[in-house]
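Figure 2 data, in text form.
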Amino acid sequence: MENEGKFRLLYICKILYELTDENNPLSTVQIMDILKNKYGISSHRITVGNDIEILREFGIDIYKIESTQNKYFISSRAFELPELKLMIDAIESSRLITKSKTKKLIDKISELSSINQAKTLKRNTHTDDRLKPKNEKIYYIIDTINEAINTNHQISFKYFKHDVNMQKQLRHGGETYTFSPYSLVWSDDYYYMVGYSHKYESIGCFRIDRIAGTPQILPNISEPMPKGFSVSEHLKAAFRMFGGEYTRVELLCENDMMDALIDKFGENIHTSNHCTNTFKARVEVCVNPIFFRWVFGFGGKIKILSPQSVKEKYADMVKKAYENI
């Protein structure tokens, strides 16, 4: 083979990455056999040893087990096995990533380990396929929005909803939305973009997986962020993706509800003791049905103390729900 020496070095590196780990080292003879049988390259013990030393000098972490037959394995990689398992769990659980893309990504992640290690990457995470999206263009949508944000340009797109037959229907008769995106946001297992809506002349947000087709980047420069607006501050208010007026609400919570409060609002919420079994919490929220449903879901363990207007709205929602039974 022409340039056999150069290819030999590359194939030895490939063999070590694919086949070896601390539990599966390869001897010099085994490496020579693979070179000959799989790649048609003849080699000698000394040349294989010298090539491995070159790879070590280059910076590849190859561990040498010295014995009558030296053995070698890759001792460290870009990602450790627990890190790869964590990434696979996240991909399998994500509602953003389609079923077919999930498989492709997991296959690529598995290639970051040895063949034997890849067998241990099989996860036992159960995910309901019904929760996986079917919008295969979502990755291109995200990439386009990122480019628009980085270049400070407006985008245009169409938005859809599902009708009673679960068929996609373009909103407002297929109207094209014009939007100045400021940031992409991951919230409650969905991706949103936050920015300025030119139609409503206000801050708005859209779910990425509900965008029909790939958005178009417009030549127009994005509308500057309103004075005093901060995406991070905007995101601190829970239930922000569903609209509603920002309001400071005081809650009365049973003590075992602290984890629920932290999960929803973070660790910087203001709390104070109320009595032996309860505490008070002050939070900034968008007051809307989503917030009320969250409160209702705890079966009375979280109560709204103030303001009175929010308490009345909540009571009205509960009353209407009861009347529909």
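Caption note: The chain has four domains: 4-74, 81-131, 138-225, 237-323.
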